[in-house]
Amino acid sequence: MTTPKHFEEKGRFQMDISMKMGAEKKPFKILKPPKKAIVFMQQHIGKCNLPTVNEGEKVITGQKIGDAEGKMTVPVHSPITGVVEGIRKVYHPVLNCPDTAVIIRQEGEEGLMPLPSFDLNDRNEIIELTREAGIVGMGGAAFPTHVKLACKGVDTFIVNAKESDPNLVCDVRLMIEKPREVVSGIKLMAKALGARRIVFATRTHKGELPELEKIMKEGGIEVKRVRPSYSVGSEKLLVEELLGREVPSGTFPPYIGVVVNNISTAYALYKAAHLKEPVISRGMSFYSDKNGIENVWFRTGTMVGEVLGSLGYDIRKFDRLIIGSLMMGWSIPSSETPLLKYSAGLTALSPEYPKPYEKQLPCIRCGYCDSVCPVDIYPSLIMKEDKEKDVKALRRLKVMDCIECGLCSYVCPSHIRLTKHLWGGKRKAKRP
Q: Considering the domain 117-275, what is its CATH architecture?
């Protein structure tokens, strides 16, 4: 796989991505099911699920254990066969607070409770299958996929295989290992959307994935090579890059007739449709600054410490653990934190790795954060208004357009974690 050493950003800023080089060649290591799984009820954007099982109840792999009524809801399923050990609040790595989780202890022989059968020639049936399988945006957004597939007036479907994060390669690895399955999922999505045009966006070069490219060509899927840029992996920027169509502020791609879904999401739909398996496992990239990248396939609800142990790592050698990528991940306080269905990466850093935000200095008004912002908002001004809790000013500054890429923090010479204020500003702006 030919990978450039840098991604080019606004202001001629370069991001080092040399750690990706060669990592796509490493096959997925399939981890054993965990002895204990911690399954959060909230693993999607939208209304939180309620447990549908009770403490002491026996459950089977694939069984629905949480659900809720409403459009923006997606059920969760048991990743293992066993007994519900408890239902309690556990630290949620994305919400950054305790949240309801079902704790399952592995017990008995492994088995799968299959999904019901659906008519794969019927648009509404495909959409219902997508929901019942618990499929969300697997690239990290966790937006309910069935809601996207239900959009009307869509003329173009973009499959996002850009994988911009500097230490993630699991999507490209999936393209190598499961090309036919991925294309099958893509076609099901396109059928549900009724999209006339399918565009596959990738950072790979022509001829690097011959089998996938052949299948795409046979299926009438356009393959578009995206320039080496980190921020262009964001769906709104990807739409503009590929189609030359701008998504207006405050709206989403379906507003202009486009839907974007991640390649891993397409694979999840294939598994639901043809293997009758809900989202109970997925692939991700594990990165450590001492050993580089490994690709692993894990069951959802597996604790971080168990993943590291399965890979032969001593947890005591790391002092920072991040669920997700270096740029967009969430730091976690404990190795007992479980992975989610939209966890595309796991990052473990040694004590020697730099800690840029430990000693933050005053802002020097250099404007570097503003100049590299890919969506042309002003992180420096948003930080000020977030501190002052001025909701009107935050909305006026278009804080909701932030894509949470982390570039503003990354380039700050004063080592200010501006992303924290952008997150905070978005939460404040969402309030009535």
A: 3-Layer(aba) Sandwich (3.40)
